[in-house]
Amino acid sequence: MIDLHTIDQVIAAGPYSDTWQSLAQASVPAWFPDAKFGIFTHWGLYTVPEYRNEWYSRNMYIEGYPEFDHHREVFGPQAEFGYKDFIPMFTAERFNADEWLDLFAKAGARYYFPVSEHHDGYQMYRSELSHWNTVETGPHRDIIGELREATLKHGLHFAASNHRAEHWWFMSHGRDFDSDVQGAEADTKGGFYWPAMPERNEFDIHSDPHPTAEYLEDWLLRVCEIIDNYQPELLYFDWWVQHESFKPYMRKLAAFYYNRGAEWGKPTSICYKYDGMAWGSGIVDVERGGYADATPFVWQTDTAIARNSWCYTTSLEYKGVDELVIALLDAVSKNGNLLLNVGPRVDGSIADHDCELLETMGAWMAANGEGIYGTRPWRITQEGPTVAGSGMFADQQATEYTAADWRFTTKNGAIYAFCLNPANAESVTCTTFAAYHDGVKPPFNGVIDTVEQLGAGPVSYERTNSGLIIVPAQRPGFAANLPIGFKITVQ
To answer: Is the pTM higher than 0.90?
Structure first.
């Protein structure tokens, strides 16, 4: 069993100490900037009701919330049927890790991030630190272990997400009325709801009551247990690790993890939000958003195939495949990766519509991946009249792109130009490659050798004063509004 002494030993023996100065010397794993596209899954006890979103465990205890009333109508009063009573219903009878990874690999993903523990405190893996896990209860299977094995078998990089930090306050509203979030289950370490402390403004990094040393040490041990037992190449944390109480524990965690990576001969890194870590000590993540322009640092955006939930529900507001592909292109053109979430159903199957979205994206990636994988931002990032949303949660409304909107990448001397919404146009014009005329220097003043449509081959083009006019080839199997990619080679 992992303990604090072992953690200190690993830190003392390795190249990284638990200071930001030392941790900032760690490099992003070399494969990550080339991979570009990963899959995220939110699947856990919160999926059992398949209602609204993955915060069901919190919201079912707040009077006035839809989850509160839904729970009483369907399952009964919270004092008689609480959140923990979903555990026997979480049997995962249709869960097949290889089938999931078949789909994710087919979608074009190069790495995979399952959630190991969400805010609700239920572990999806074998643990010696808590009995509230999928091996001892529910499906009686090591979900994370099975997913890791399938991920490696399919040639993808395995990573793990952990959202335990927010459990400090996540179940607290159950103390406000007669519910099962009372007594030993909430007051004693080892209880399912423990510690259920009062919720404060979730972005107040100084909020009281501060997590105790007992809770923070438990958080540290849980994450280190995942590191040692499953050897993820990346970790991901949700936002609340930025609270001031987590800082020394986060430094210790990162030093332990980066030193373990050095032992394994497999560099590791941590994806974090906002200012959860010092700049340069991990990979910055922008939830449901991105940057306005290309950045000098590698980053990641995590978003979902639905706008209103990370887990599967019966009321998902799905995005179209065009929006998902454009999110990928926008991120990659700006030095980012896309981590795309899908939520499996409670039984472990993946809904037909979700499969169709990923399979269509995979077909697009099979044709256009040359302009995605292993590329870097070009000196010009984008072209067009439409302004993409930037910052966190910019995806709450779809952006309507046109045939005049483009994104650019580069690799091996070639430039890749993607028209974001060709919409069955007979020809598309990229003004960035306009010819020199009337003494006006164009943005690109090189000599074009060839233009190929990715997945189709050479196409007709003409370089004019107004831009590079390209006649796209037929694209059987693709929707008219999916982006088209072109490879432009120069002399």
So the answer is: yes
